[in-house]
Amino acid sequence: MAAYLMFEIDITDPSWGPEYGEKVKPLVAKHGGKVIIRSTEAVRIEGARDVPTVVVVLEFPTRDAAQAWHSDPAYRPLIDLRNTGSSAEALLVDGV
Fold first, then answer.
1. What's the confidence (pLDDT) of residue 69?
2. Beta-carbon count within 10 A of 78 CB
3. Number of domains composing the chain
4. Digit-coded pLDDT (tens) for 35-69
5. Containing structural domain, residue 80
6. CATH number, domain at 70?
7. Angle made by CA atoms 80, 83, 85, in degrees to the nearest 5
8. How buried is residue 23: exposed, middle or buried, by Cβ count under 10 Å (0-12/13-18/19+)?
9. Closest Cα partner for 8 from 34, 39, 32, 31?
10. What is the predicted pLDDT for the residue at 8?
11. What is the pLDDT of residues 60-96, one digit of tens each?
12. Are 1 and 93 spatial neighbours (Cβ–Cβ below 8 Å)?
């Protein structure tokens, strides 16, 4: 069953973006994942939280593959890089 990692990212300094994007794409693919949503134009239709700067949804073939990507030692430096200019909320959910 497919699994999805959903990120809400608030960007405070976009300088990390080009390096992060270049390095994260092949790492996601290595674990069988793909980007299915990357949007800077989210609209909150329920709730009171602020709308994030960017919403990203990654699709993986399984929950195990998604967790393997997120715990891959090669991804840790990219998390640190992303955190130099943003904060993020992430959820892992199964598809139907």
1. 98
2. 17
3. 1
4. 999 999 999 999 999 999 999 999 999 999 999 99
5. 3-41+50-94
6. 3.30.70.100
7. 130
8. middle
9. 39
10. 97
11. 999 999 999 999 999 999 999 999 999 999 999 999 9
12. no
Contact between 40 and 3 under an 8 Å Cβ cutoff? The reply is no
Burial class (CB in 10 A: 0-12, 13-18, 19+), 50: exposed
The structure tokens listed for 11 are 């960007």
Its pTM surpasses 0.85: yes
Q: What per-residue confidence (pLDDT) applies to 80?
A: 98
Beta strands 86-94; 3-11: pairing state: antiparallel
DSSP for 7-71? Answer: EEEEES-GGGHHHHHHHHHHHHHHTT-EEEEEES-----SSSSPPPSEEEEEEESSHHHHHHHHH
Adjacent-strand bridge partners of 35 = 58
